[in-house]
Write a structure and sequence with these properties.
Structural class: alpha/beta
Keywords: ATP-binding, Kinase, Nucleotide-binding, Nucleotidyltransferase, Transferase
Family: Belongs to the GHMP kinase family.
Domain GDP-fucose pyrophosphorylase: 70-221
Helix content: 25-40%
Strand content: 15-25%
Shape: globular
Number of strands: 39
Domain GHMP kinase C-terminal: 850-931
Domain GHMP kinase N-terminal: 699-768
Number of domains: 5
Radius of gyration: 33 Å
Largest sheet: 9 strands, mixed
C-alpha cells in the first residue's frame, strides 16, 4: 500500500529526508504554485504526478489497478495555524497519549491518521484502490470496522447534531433504507437538517472517501485531465466535496449524468471521534480531548502531572514558572528560560536558546523561523488571528486587535495589502539582532518608543505569512527539533514515574538516542516495585547499548528474568506434599488433543497479555483419529523416577533433586517432565513446608519410585503447541497421581509458569486450546492472572460432511523452533515497539471478527479470515513465510479461500481451506505429486469433543 501526500512547497522540496519511515512507500508533491485546484483538482494533480513518478510505463488505468493508495491532503495555507504552515499538518508533532502504549515520542499527525485509513482501504472491495483523506483531521476509532459497502464511492461519516452539521458536508440516507446514499448538502442550516431528519438520517462528512478506479477516472475528467490520453493539459479547479459530492446519490443535489452513473454508499463509524487540527485552538483542544478520551485510571499509564491539563510541551526546555492560570499553552521546539513570563493562549515554536526577558500577554503567539543562511524570521501573531482581509480595515485583526494598531503604536507606516496573508509583516534578522529588548518591543501591546528598533524593523527584509511558509529552512527546523527531543530523553527517563517515557515506543527512543552522546543516568525501579517499568528500563538500555555497538545481553537477560520470576514465584514453595493416590497395579493415562489456531495468536503472550489481555480463536483436534499426546504414569518398586519417550526412543533416570532441577540447562533432555515434576512438589524449590533431605527420602515416604512414559505422535516444530499440550498432559497426570485434583485452570496457569522455567516463554492459548474441548474463543483481561473466559462456538464447519473435503491439514516437513521467533517478538513487546503493538491490536480485533463469523456459520468467510490471520502473522514476523513455504503455496493460491501455517509459522503444519471439493482435490494431487520433501504428508484431523482426559486403570 502506498501513501500519496500533498504538502506545502517548503516541505515538498526536502521531503525525502524529513518524511518518517512510518509513512511507508510514500510519494510527496505539492500543488502547482499559484494554481487554485480545489480538493478535486488537487487530488487529480497528486494522482497524475504519482503516476508520472512511476515512469508512466503503464496506462493510468493499469496503474490505478496495480496498488492500493492512501491520499492525504496535508498542504494548504494554514492561515489559522501559522506555526505549522511550512511543515504541513502531516508532520505536525502530536503529544503521546497518556493512555496509549507504543506511541513514538516524535510522532506526527500523519502517523496517527494512517492506520485507520489503511485499515479501511484494506477492508474495501476489490474495485476500490484509492482512499482520499483530509490532512487536518484525526478520526479516532477503537471499534472494529463495519463491513464496507461495495460501491464506486464510499463516504465515511459520523453521527452528530444538526448544529454541528451546519459546519460540514452532510450525507443523507432515507430512514426506510439507511444503506442508501440519497444526497449530500454542504454546510446546511440546522433548521434544514432538522426538517429533513423526519425522513432521513444524516451523517457528517469527515473527509474520508473511498473511490473505485471508475470513480477516479471520472474525477480526473471533471478536473480537466483525460486519463485515457494521459496528456499534459492543465488541471482546472474542481471541488471534491462541493461539486463531485453534490452530484452523487439517488437524488443528487446537483444533476450530473456522469456522476449519476456511479454507485455510492455511506459507511457510518458509530463510535469514532472527530478531532480537528485546523486552528491554534483546535491544536490544543484536540490534543487535550485525545489525552482525556480515557479516564479509567486502570488504563492510564502516566498521570502526566501538569499545572494545567491544556499545557503541552514537546521537544523543548522550559524553565519559566507555569501554573494553573496558564491555560491553552503550546510550546514546541523551543528554549524558554526562567526570565520569561507567560499568560494563556500561546503557541510558541522555534525559540532558540536565549536570555531574553519577555512577557507574553494573553493570546500572544511567537514563532522564530529559520530562513536560508543563518537568518531568522520573527513571527508574532494572535491566538485567534485568521490572516484574512485588508490590513487597513478595523475588521482585519492581527495580534487580536485591528491590524493597523500595531504599526500606529510603533510609529511605523501601515503597509498596503488587501489580504493579510500576503502582507510582509515579519522581519528577517540575524541571530545577534534578536535581543530581549527587541523581542519585547515586537510583542508588547504598549511598547516603549524606540527609534532604533523601529529602524531595525523598517530596514529589515520582511516576509508575509505566505512567503514565510515557502522560505522556511525545513531541514534546520527538523535538526533543531530532533536535537531538543534527544536532549529531553534522559530527563523523561529520570522522571519516568510521571512522564510518558516507559509507555512510549522505547525502540524508537533508543534509535533517536543512539547516534548522540546523551547519558541515561536514571535509577531503574526494582521488579517488586514496578514490574513493567523494571523490564522496560532494562530492555531499553539493552537496545540502546546494541545500537551503540555494544552487546546489551546482560540488561536483556535481566528483563526476561524479572518477568520469569513474576510468573513463576507464586508457585515457589507452595506445592502441597505429593501423596500417592494410586494402587500398586494402577496406571494413570492422560491423553490430549492439540490445538489449531485460527485467529488472535500472539495476543496471549506475556508481557502483551499482562497489559492488554489476550483474545484467540482455536480448536482442539485429534490427528488420524487419536489424541496425539499421551502420558502413562505408575508407581514402581525401583528407586528414582524413570522417564521414557516412545517417539524419541530414549529414557533417563532421575535420582536426585539436582537431576530434576536440571530442567533449565541448555541441552537438557526431558526438560518438560523435569520442570513438571518440580512444579508438582518433587523439588525443594516448589515444596511447601520443611521439605525432604533428598529425593530418595521423599519417594520413600511417597511409596515408591515413578515410571512416566511419554508419547508425542507429532514432529518437532509442528506449530500445534505441542510442548504446552505435553506440559498440560503431564501436569494433569501428576495431579491425578499425587491427589491434587487440579482443574484445567490450575493446570493451564502452571503451564505458563513451566514454560518460563524452561526460558522458552510462550502464551497460554496452546495449553487451553488443546486441553479444552471443541471450537472456542478464549479471552483474558489485563493483569498477571491470565485465566481465560471461554466462549464455545458451534463446530459444524469442522464436522459437517459438506465441508469435510474442503478442510486440509498438511505437514510441510519443514521445522522452525518457535523459541527464536518468540524471543524477538517478546523483545518488541517489552520495548512497546509500535509496529508490533499495532499488529497485535489488529490480531485481537481480528479474533473478534472470526468469532462472529463462526457464530454465523459462514465457511467461505471463515476461510478468508484465516487468510487475513496469515497476513497479520507475516506482518508481525516476516520470517513466518520463508522462501521454502512460499514455494509450496504459490501453485495453490488460486484454489484456496485461505491458509496459514499453524503456530509461529516458518514450518510445521499448514491449515488450508479450499474453495470447493474440486479445488481441494487439485491441491491434494499437486502436493502428492510434488512434495517439498520426503517427510511432507496430509494428516486427517477431527474436532475433539472431549479435550484433555485423565483416567486410571
Amino acid at each position: 500500500m502506498k501513501t500519496l501526500l500533498s504538502v506545502p512547497p517548503a516541505l515538498s522540496r526536502v521531503a525525502s529526508s524529513l518524511i518518517p519511515a512510518t509513512f511507508g512507500d510514500c510519494f510527496v508533491t505539492h500543488d502547482p504554485e499559484g494554481a487554485k485546484l480545489g480538493s478535486g483538482g488537487g487530488t487529480a494533480h497528486l494522482l497524475r504526478e504519482a503516476w508520472r513518478a512511476d515512469g508512466e510505463s503503464q496506462s493510468f488505468a493499469e496503474w490505478l489497478q496495480r496498488d492500493d493508495r492512501v491520499l492525504v491532503h496535508a498542504g494548504g495555507q494554514s492561515r489559522r495555524l501559522p506555526a505549522y504552515a511550512a511543515l504541513g499538518k502531516a508532520l505536525l508533532p502530536v503529544p503521546v497519549f497518556r493512555w496509549c502504549a507504543g506511541q513514538r515520542l516524535d510522532q506526527t499527525l500523519g502517523e496517527l491518521q494512517l492506520p485507520l485509513l489503511q485499515k479501511i482501504l484494506e477492508a474495501a472491495g476489490a474495485q476500490s484502490h484509492t482512499l482520499i483523506a483530509s490532512g487536518d483531521v484525526l478520526i479516532w476509532n477503537d471499534r472494529p470496522l463495519p463491513e464496507i459497502p461495495d460501491a464506486d464511492v464510499v463516504c465515511v461519516g459520523l453521527w452528530d447534531s444538526p448544529e454541528t452539521a451546519a459546519g460540514h458536508g452532510v450525507f443523507f440516507t432515507p430512514r426506510a433504507h439507511p444503506e442508501q446514499f440519497d444526497f449530500m448538502l454542504q454546510k446546511p442550516d440546522p433548521s434544514r437538517v432538522a426538517e429533513l431528519s423526519s425522513t432521513h438520517l444524516f451523517l457528517l462528512d469527515i473527509g474520508i472517501w473511498l473511490l473505485s478506479d471508475r470513480a477516479v477516472e471520472v474525477l480526473m475528467r471533471k478536473s480537466g485531465w483525460n486519463p485515457q490520453t494521459g496528456d499534459d493539459g492543465e488541471l482546472s479547479e474542481y471541488d471534491l466535496y462541493g461539486e463531485f459530492g453534490l452530484g452523487l446519490g439517488e437524488n443528487p443535489t446537483v444533476e450530473d449524468p456522469e456522476l449519476a452513473e456511479l454507485t455510492c454508499a455511506v459507511l457510518p463509524l458509530s463510535e469514532a471521534e472527530f478531532h480537528h487540527f485546523g486552528t491554534n485552538r483546535d491544536l490544543i483542544g484536540s490534543s487535550l480531548a485525545l489525552q482525556n478520551r480515557v479516564n479509567d485510571q486502570r488504563r492510564i499509564f502516566s498521570p502526566l502531572i501538569k499545572p494545567h491539563p491544556s499545557i503541552f510541551i514537546q521537544n523543548a526546555e522550559v524553565a519559566c514558572s507555569l501554573g494553573s492560570e496558564n491555560q491553552e499553552v503550546w510550546i514546541e521546539n523551543s528554549s524558554i528560560p526562567d526570565t520569561w513570563k507567560l499568560s494563556k493562549q500561546h503557541v510558541i515554536t522555534g525559540i532558540p536558546e536565549n536570555d531574553w526577558i519577555v512577557k507574553l500577554s494573553e493570546g500572544t503567539c511567537l514563532d522564530v523561523v529559520p530562513i536560508g543562511g543563518e537568518c531568522f524570521a520573527v513571527r508574532v501573531y494572535g491566538f485567534h488571528d485568521r490572516f484574512r482581509g485588508d490590513l487597513n480595515l478595523d475588521s482585519t485583526t492581527w495580534m487580536g486587535k485591528p491590524a493597523a494598531d500595531w504599526f500606529r503604536r510603533r510609529r511605523l507606516p501601515i503597509p498596503e495589502g488587501d489580504d493579510l496573508q500576503k502582507v510582509p509583516l515579519f522581519p528577517v534578522l540575524r541571530r545577534e539582532e534578536m535581543n530581549g529588548k527587541f523581542m519585547r518591543w515586537i510583542v508588547e501591546e504598549e511598547p516603549r518608543e524606540d527609534p532604533g528598533f523601529a529602524r531595525l524593523y523598517r530596514d529589515a527584509e520582511k516576509l508575509s505569512a505566505e512567503e514565510l511558509a515557502n522560505r522556511c529552512a525545513m531541514e534546520r527546523v527538523d535538526q533543531d527539533r530532533k536535537r531538543r527531543l534527544v536532549e529531553s530523553l534522559p530527563v523523561l527517563a529520570r522522571h519516568a514515574g510521571r512522564s510518558v517515557f516507559y509507555q512510549s515506543d522505547l525502540y524508537r527512543a533508543a534509535e533517536l538516542a543512539a547516534p548522540s552522546d546523551v547519558v541515561f543516568d536514571e535509577v531503574s525501579p526494582a521488579a517488586s516495585e514496578n514490574l513493567y517499568a523494571c523490564v522496560r528500563s532494562r530492555m531499553f538500555h539493552s537496545a540502546l547499548e546494541r545500537m551503540r555497538g555494544g552487546d546489551g545481553s546482560e540488561q536483556e537477560a535481566e528483563a526476561f528474568r524479572a518477568m520469569r520470576n513474576a510468573i513463576v514465584d507464586p508457585y515457589r514453595r507452595t506445592a502441597p506434599v505429593p501423596r500417592n493416590s494410586v494402587l500398586s497395579d494402577q496406571v494413570i493415562w492422560a491423553r490430549s488433543p492439540v490445538r489449531l489456531d485460527l485467529a488472535g495468536g500472539w495476543t496471549d503472550t506475556p508481557p502483551y497479555c499482562f497489559l492488554n489481555g489476550g483474545r484467540v480463536v482455536n480448536l482442539s483436534v485429534e490427528l488420524n483419529g487419536q489424541p496425539p499426546v499421551q502420558i502413562f504414569a505408575r508407581t514402581s518398586d525401583r528407586p528414582g523416577i524413570s522417564l521414557r519417550s516412545i517417539d524419541l526412543g530414549s529414557e533417563v533416570s532421575l535420582r536426585s533433586y539436582e537431576d530434576i532441577g536440571a530442567y533449565a540447562e541448555i541441552g537438557s533432555d526431558f526438560a518438560i517432565p523435569r520442570a513438571a515434576l518440580a512444579l508438582c512438589g518433587f523439588h525443594p524449590d516448589f515444596q511447601s513446608g520443611t521439605g525432604y533431605p533428598s529425593l530418595d527420602a521423599q519417594l520413600e515416604e511417597f511409596g515408591g519410585g515413578l515410571e512416566i512414559t511419554l508419547l508425542c505422535a507429532i514432529p518437532k516444530g509442528s506449530g500445534l503447541g505441542t510442548s504446552s499440550v505435553l506440559s498440560s498432559a503431564l501436569l494433569a497426570c501428576l495431579s491425578e497421581l499425587a491427589g491434587y485434583g487440579w482443574d484445567s485452570v490450575a493446570i493451564g496457569n502452571r503451564v505458563l509458569a513451566l514454560e518460563q522455567m524452561l526460558t522458552s516463554g510462550g502464551g497460554w492459548q496452546d495449553q487451553y486450546g488443546g486441553a479444552v474441548r471443541g471450537l472456542k474463543m478464549l479471552e483474558t483481561g489485563p493483569g498477571l492472572d491470565q485465566t481465560p473466559d471461554i466462549r464455545w462456538l458451534p463446530g459444524h464447519l469442522f464436522t459437517d460432511p459438506q465441508f469435510q473435503g474442503c478442510r486440509l491439514l498438511y505437514y510441510t516437513g519443514v521445522t522452525r523452533v518457535a523459541h527464536n521467533v518468540l524471543s524477538e517478538i517478546v523483545r518488541g513487546m517489552f520495548l512497546n515497539r509500535q509496529e508490533h503493538l499495532r499488529c497485535l491490536e489488529d490480531l485481537s480485533d481480528h479474533a473478534l471478527r472470526m468469532y462472529e463469523c463462526l457464530q454465523k456459520g459462514d465457511f467461505e468467510r471463515m476461510g478468508r479470515l484465516v487468510d487475513r490471520t496469515w497476513e497479520l502473522n507475516q506482518r508481525l514476523d516476516s520470517g513466518t513465510c520463508t522462501p521454502v513455504i512460499q514455494k509450496i503455496l504459490e501453485p495453490l493460491n488460486d484454489w484456496l479461500l485461505g491458509k496459514k501455517l499453524l503456530g509461529a509459522g516458518g514450518g510445521g503444519y499448514l491449515l488450508m481451506f479450499a474453495k470447493d471439493e474440486a479445488a481441494a482435490l487439485r491441491i491434494r494431487r499437486h502436493l502428492q505429486e510434488n512434495p517439498p520433501n520426503a517427510r511432507a504428508r496430509f494428516v486427517d484431523f477431527s474436532l475433539s469433543e472431549t479435550g484433555l482426559q485423565v483416567t486410571r486403570s
